[in-house]
């Protein structure tokens, strides 16, 4: 057998290169599971079509905004949560299948599992965003603001996706098994549906409005809607685009600040 | 040379289960140590501690002279872990898996590539190296898992039940692979539930039960204490059992056990392995003279439960086989 040469005797492999390895392997895991790509795309397209053509006709929007222009920004934004559920099941699988054990027995920084996963999951999420946006355009969604604003909206969604990954990775590590992780990730439903994503908050009962208009997803959806629809959306929402963008970014920051340390702590003791 | 593993008074509790209860163990460098014990004996807990995945509640553990708690990074640099569950990425090829682990060890792209190729060749996986692991058989996965623990050129290889659940052919294959490594001077700590596995691979065997060391020594030392092989007589008529037991105890062997359920009498042979054949002949003759109808008579290795019985004077409680026999 050829001689195996050991690495130079540094103490621990640096964070950058080790993160890169985890990112690469996590992305391959997504890319080489065609079912995930095909089903994810079909599922997204199906729900978008159902909302646009089945429910859409019954949902009036004040201020003359077409429902498709109201819906698509909400749909794209909440899409990061649905795609993000993959991060929860993925992290749980890594724990269950022994990948985390192997990694923890290697001379790498503890953080590299989390950073590697978060980056790969965000990249995966960005792909999902692009696909949803393309379908959105295909069914009649149009931008009524400036192009830089629209690009900023897309960037904002990527940032939201990144922020939510930490929540999902933490959930996945807490759950321990992919099935349990999927169950916990269902928490996504009340937050996405009780928001301004698919219908105007003003159509909900008063007590629900109180929650719907102040929860983070509404701010995020409204920021994206405002950036893509310009003045008409601002009028409808009643806040300026700048305010919505800042508020949603603060929420995103809050998610990272809370859930990244929680995930790190859970990883350390798993 | 300093011992590769030094454990003193290790204790670990998970809720109500005392996984380790004051385990002391010293493993000298330059040998293969097998940790033998039934399910729940504490084998995996111990190996996870050596791999820095778990901290002891009490006691001290040094690996290669480094403390697993305070110098975990140094320990991780000199160990390679292959687990009970093959921790390799199914969506990557064999080659990609090994390259990733090598890179995580801090190796350059070029040396990771070379080491991955060398390990694949050593394990006879060169041809399968470009296929996704998803398409591998169970035995190939275990081999690759073993390979992943090797690309970092570890001083100490940790193998947690390396062949559990494998078919006999893959098992022997994997044993060969492990033996080749040992020939190259890697220290190995492996856990197993199988006596023959410890016998085949290890130069030193540590038997543990209930989180403590029950006995340790070379395989032949331990076998000497257990009484070497076991003669097993399977009779046609249950009524003949006492008579066969009497005959077997008269013709020299040691401890005799009767199993009513399977109509078998087992007797351990005193005096090591060499005496086995002679004692078997004698027993055969004696049983024939007694006029007992015999279905089968055989000389075999003692089972784990018999080793426990011999070494501790009581059947190991965790093993269903031992529990079953004692109730009959």
Write a short abstract of this structure.
With 270 residues, chain A is mostly helical. Chain A is 76% helix and 0% strand. Chain A starts with 14 loop residues before the first helix and ends with a helix.
Q: What is the element layout, followed by pairings?
A:
The complex is a heterodimer of chains A (270) and B (328).
Chain A: H1 15-31, H2 34-55, H3 67-96, H4 99-104, H5 111-138, H6 147-175, H7 178-185, H8 188-193, H9 206-214, H10 216-229, H11 231-237, H12 241-268
Helix pairs in contact in A: 1-5, 2-3, 2-5, 3-5, 3-6, 3-7, 3-10, 5-6, 6-7, 6-10, 6-12, 10-11, 10-12
Chain B: E1 5-14, E2 17-27, E3 32-36, H1 43-50, E4 58-63, E5 66-67, H2 72-78, E6 79-82, H3 94-104, H4 109-122, H5 138-148, E7 156-160, H6 168-183, E8 187-192, H7 195-201, E9 204-209, E10 212-217, H8 219-226, E11 230-235, H9 241-250, E12 256-259, E13 264-268, H10 276-289, E14 294-300, H11 304-312, H12 320-327
Parallel strand pairs in B: 3-8, 3-9, 6-7, 7-8
Antiparallel strand pairs in B: 1-2, 1-4, 4-5, 9-10, 11-13, 11-14, 12-13
Helix pairs in contact in B: 3-4, 5-6
Report the sheet with the most strands of chain A, covering strand number, pairing sense and barrel closure: none
Secondary-structure element sequence of chain A? HHHHHHHHHHHH
Shape of chain B: globular
Largest interface: A-B, 34 and 44 residues
- Which runs of chain A of at least 5 residues are low in confidence (pLDDT < 50)? none
- Percent of residues in beta strands of chain A: under 5%
Quaternary structure: heterodimer
Runs of chain B in which pLDDT lies below 50 for 5 or more consecutive residues are 317-328
Proportion of residues in extended strands of chain B: 25-35%
- Average residue pLDDT of chain B: 84
Total strand segments of chain A: 0
Gyration radius of chain A (Cα, Å) is: 20 Å
Could you characterize what this model shows?
The complex is a heterodimer of chains A (270) and B (328). Chain A has 270 residues and is an all-alpha fold. Chain A has twelve helices and no strands. In chain A, helix 6 packs parallel to helix 12. The longest helix of chain A is centred in the first third of the chain and has 30 residues, at 67-96. Chain B is an alpha/beta fold and 328 residues long. Chain B has helices at residues 43-50, 72-78, 94-104, 109-122, 138-148, 168-183, 195-201, 219-226, 241-250, 276-289, 304-312, 320-327; strands at residues 5-14, 17-27, 32-36, 58-63, 66-67, 79-82, 156-160, 187-192, 204-209, 212-217, 230-235, 256-259, 264-268, 294-300. A six-stranded mixed sheet of chain B has the order 6-7-8-3-9-10, sandwiched between helices. Chain B has a four-stranded antiparallel sheet with strand order 2-1-4-5, with helices on one face. A four-stranded antiparallel sheet of chain B has the order 12-13-11-14, with helices on one face. Chain B is globular. Chain A binds chain B through residues 1-14, 17-18, 21, 24-25, 28-29, 32-33, 97-99, 101-108, and chain B through 48, 51-53, 73-74, 76-77, 79, 81, 83, 85-87, 89, 91-92, 96, 100-108, 111, 114-115, 117-119, 121-122, 132, 148, 150-153, 158, 180, 184.
